[in-house]
Specification:
Strand content: over 45%
Largest sheet: 4 strands, antiparallel
Radius of gyration: 15 Å
Number of strands: 8
Structural class: mainly beta
Order of helices and strands: EEEEEEEE
């Protein structure tokens, strides 16, 4: 057990846009098309919040977040969260509905946060922004 507290020393912000080619995969286990959101540093860290926004007209979908604690992907990805997004129709006068993930997730050293989105539902992409920090 630690005898001294550990605080985030380096706040960070990761951004990625998921689409059919870099993160489209409907698998619940062992996704084959997965996008790396970020890799945490050698001291570990924590994920605070994820913001998900469609980048245009899309059908409804689910964004799945995975953690890989050894950094090699494949069967080592573990599903940790699913965030639904409603169907959107892009117009010049209305904001597109997004969603927020209040993660509060502690990651060990060198862990990788990855994401996938249903490949048949998302034609214009989903922007993901994640607030995180390293210890």
């Amino acid at each position: 057990m630690a005898t001294t507290p550990s605080f985030v020393g380096t706040p960070k912000f990761a951004n990625i846009i998921l689409n059919n080619t870099n993160g489209g995969d409907t698998a619940y286990q062992n996704p084959t098309t997965v996008a790396t959101v970020f890799t945490i540093g050698s001291t570990g860290g924590r994920v605070d919040t994820g913001y998900l926004r469609p980048t245009g007209t899309n059908a409804s979908c689910v964004v799945r977040f995975w953690v890989d604690t050894v950094g090699t992907g494949g069967a080592l990805n573990r599903l940790i969260q699913e965030v639904p997004l409603a169907a959107t129709a892009s117009t010049g006068v209305a904001a597109l509905a997004g969603n927020t993930w209040s993660a509060r997730l502690i990651l060990p050293a060198s862990a990788v946060l990855r994401a996938t989105v249903a490949n048949t539902a998302v034609t214009n992409g989903v922007a993901i922004s994640v607030e995180y920090g390293e210890f």
